[in-house]
Design goal:
single chain, 118 residues, mainly beta, four-stranded antiparallel beta sheet
Length: 118
């Protein structure tokens, strides 16, 4: 069974870049059966899909975040990462990584709280 773990700073200053890494165990991120997503939930709001990286390294992003978002991977470490640039306080959220199959996230990390504040 796959397990996902987010890691990264919990506090980021406005205008800086938020960086998070998701380490996957129990399954390869290069498996053609799955995709790997980042999803966030701001306080008091619903889940927001941010983007996905496929087994071949191709990516797709939410139109509202595309200009600030980058997802990459390190296959040697079985990790994929999120970078969100020019952050503002409204980017404060719990950030989740997830494994996706048939456009549905089935396995989630525990979530990483990231606060944007000076």
């Amino acid at each position: 069974q796959v397990q996902l773990q987010e890691s990264g700073p919990g506090l980021v200053k406005p205008s800086q870049t938020l960086s998070l890494t998701c380490t996957a165990s129990g399954g390869s991120i290069t498996s053609s059966s799955y995709a790997w997503s980042w999803i966030r939930q701001p306080p008091g709001k619903g889940l927001e899909w941010m983007g996905v990286i496929l087994y071949d390294g191709s990516t797709n992003y939410s139109p509202s975040l595309r200009s600030r978002t980058s997802i990459s991977r390190d296959t040697s470490k079985n990790q994929f990462s999120l970078q969100l640039s020019s952050v503002i306080p409204e980017d404060t959220a719990v950030y989740y990584c997830a494994r996706v199959q048939y456009r549905t996230p089935h396995y989630w990390g525990q979530g990483a709280q990231v606060t944007v504040s000076s």
